[in-house]
Design brief:
mainly alpha, Rna Polymerase Sigma Factor, Chain: A, 2 domains
Length: 233
C-alpha cells in the first residue's frame, strides 16, 4: 500500500510538471503527512497555517525540478523542505519582537478603557501616566504609535485578495487558516459576513498589536499568491 501511494505520488508529480495542473490538489492531499511532519518541527515559532502554507509553496515551486532518475520523490521533497528552516529564522523574529510590545499595548489599552468608563471621556496623557505609573513621554509615544504612526488601511490587499476574481480559491484558502488568521483575513477583505476593517480595527478584534496584524497580513498575502501560482483556480 505504501509503495502504491509513493508510485501514485511520483506519477502525479510528473504529470503536474508536464502541465496537468488539475492533479495538484490530489498530490498535495497525498503529501499532507510529509508536510505536517516538517511543520511540526517548527510549531511554536510561527502559526501552523503559515508554516503549512510556506511548506506547500516550497513543494509546488520544487516540483518542476524533480527528476525520478536522480532520486525518489520523497527524498527530493524532504530535501527541498529543509528550506522551511530559513523561512522560520527569517520571520520568527518579526513575531517575537512584537510580543513584548503586544503585552505593553494590552496593559495600556486596558487602563485607557478603564479610565474612559470611569471619566466618561478620553483620559489625558497625564491621567494615563499617573494610572499606569509611566513616564509622560512614554504615554505620548504610545498614543502616537497607536494613531498616526500605525494608522493603516487594509485596502492595499484588495488587489491581492480579489473576491470577484478568486472567489473559489478564497474559500479554499480561508478554510485552511487558523481561527485567528481566519478573523484577520476576513476583516482584511470583508469576508464571511464580517466587515472590512483597517489594521487598528483588526488588531482590536484579535487583541494583538497593529504590527502583529500587519506581519500576519504580509504572510497571508505571500501564501495566497503562492497558491495562485499553482494554477489550481
Amino acid at each position: 500500500m505504501v509503495n502504491q501511494n509513493k508510485q501514485l505520488e511520483t506519477e502525479l508529480a510528473l504529470r503536474y510538471s508536464k502541465g496537468e495542473k488539475h492533479v495538484l490538489p490530489q498530490l498535495l492531499t497525498s503529501l499532507t503527512p510529509m508536510i505536517q511532519t516538517h511543520v511540526n518541527k517548527w510549531t511554536g515559532n510561527l502559526p501552523q497555517d503559515v508554516l503549512h502554507g510556506e511548506a506547500t509553496s516550497i513543494i509546488i515551486n520544487s516540483l518542476p525540478k524533480f527528476d525520478p532518475k536522480k532520486s525518489s520523490l520523497s527524498t527530493f521533497l524532504n530535501t527541498q523542505l529543509q528550506q522551511l528552516s530559513r523561512f522560520v529564522y527569517t520571520n520568527q523574529n518579526l513575531v517575537r519582537l512584537s510580543e513584548p510590545r503586544n503585552i505593553k499595548v494590552g496593559v495600556f489599552k486596558r487602563e485607557q478603557n478603564r479610565l474612559r468608563d470611569e471619566l466618561g471621556r478620553e483620559p489625558t496623557p497625564l491621567e494615563l501616566a499617573d494610572a499606569l505609573s509611566w513616564n509622560i513621554r512614554d504615554v505620548e509615544k504610545m498614543l502616537k504609535s497607536l494613531t498616526s504612526d500605525y494608522v493603516a488601511s487594509s485596502s492595499q490587499y484588495e488587489g491581492v485578495f480579489n473576491e470577484d476574481k478568486y472567489s473559489d480559491y478564497i474559500e479554499y484558502f480561508y478554510r485552511g487558516l487558523s481561527p485567528e488568521n481566519q478573523l484577520i483575513f476576513a476583516h482584511t477583505i470583508g469576508y464571511a459576513g464580517l466587515p472590512q476593517l483597517d489594521v487598528k480595527g483588526i488588531a482590536r478584534k484579535v487583541n494583538k498589536s497593529v504590527q502583529y496584524v500587519k506581519d500576519q497580513q504580509k504572510l497571508l498575502a505571500k501564501n495566497f499568491r503562492a497558491g495562485l501560482r499553482t494554477g489550481m483556480f
